[in-house]
Design goal:
With 286 residues, the protein is an alpha/beta fold. It has a single domain, classed as Rossmann fold. It has 10 helices and 8 strands. Helix 6 runs antiparallel to helix 7. The longest helix has 19 residues.
Length: 286
């Protein structure tokens, strides 16, 4: 890329014969009003051969990090075009905490995991649910890492918007997470500190908003996946969430990768992940 002109020159054509056989879904840049009067960039990815006269199920994508750029990334685990190709409209909001929209937007999420950014998610899916080509009775929600936290949190606070959830490598119990993670600096920075510090208002607010505190309100099918080599967010977090759903009598499924870490990196595991991901959402949204 020429940084002055913005002109892009393609360097490799290794996959051109394969890509030429595929029709990609269109990507729309949409600005959505948030509950605090700001404008939020939301990517909307449409299925290939999209027909506006039909109704489609939609997936709300919750970004991980939480301070990670939300772009048109392409991987074994998260692939918006793969989701769209399976017949889903994908809604990917650049909620509070995503870089690229100023320091205030980026830092607002720290110490406020259950706050404005969760309202940002709901603003995005509510706006798209009003479109005539979105079936508001077939909405799903997915994400990994902080996105997995978001799925677990929304599962107890979505007011029946969604019909299915899928969380990968998500934080379920923040008190356990504080003592389990290998990234202690980040836990102190983003959660606010240890749960036993009762004088720390930011930390106490974080722990009061831990997803496990809302399990009594879970009412929607949920699938959980995790890697056992994950030291950022231990697989015990996924096990807790799955067991909670099972004990509540909620349709649920658990997929454990004994040879993966915080990401799905092995191609065969990627195939399995995608197969189970769409098997789950197809069962509940189609």
């Amino acid at each position: 890329m020429d940084l002055v002109s913005g002109e892009v020159t393609e360097l490799s054509f290794e996959n051109k014969p394969i890509l030429d056989q595929l029709t990609m879904g269109e990507v729309e840049e949409r600005w959505i009003a948030t509950t605090d009067g700001k404008e939020m960039l939301t990517w909307v990815i449409y299925p290939p051969h999209f027909d506006a006269s039909k109704k489609y199920p939609a997936l709300l994508y919750c970004q991980g990090g939480p301070q990670n750029t939300l772009g048109q990334f392409w991987s074994y685990r998260w692939n918006f075009q793969m989701m769209a190709a399976n017949g889903y409209i994908v809604v990917a909001p650049n909620r509070r905490g995503v870089p690229g929209f100023g320091q205030e937007w980026l830092e607002q999420i720290s110490g406020d995991y259950g706050g404005q950014n969760m309202r940002d998610y709901l603003s995005a899916i509510d706006a798209l649910a009003k479109e005539p080509y979105v079936d508001e009775e077939r909405l799903g929600c997915t994400g990994a890492s902080y996105g997995g936290f978001s799925v677990f949190w929304l599962a107890g606070n979505h007011d029946k918007r969604f019909k299915a959830f899928f969380a990968h490598a998500g934080i379920f119990n923040q008190e356990a997470q504080y003592l389990e993670t290998e990234e202690m600096f980040f836990a102190n920075w983003d959660i606010g500190g240890p749960y036993w510090d009762k004088s720390n208002a930011t930390a106490q607010r974080s722990y009061q908003n831990s997803p496990h505190r809302f399990v009594e309100r879970w009412d929607t099918p949920i699938m959980v996946s995790h890697g056992e080599f994950d030291y950022r967010i231990l697989a015990s977090q996924g096990m807790m969430a799955f067991n909670a759903a099972q004990l509540r009598g909620i349709p649920s499924r658990l997929l454990i990768f004994p040879d993966e870490n915080h990401w799905i990196l092995k191609p065969q595991n990627g195939i399995l992940f995608q197969r189970e991901f769409f098997r789950w959402f197809d069962e509940w949204l189609k």
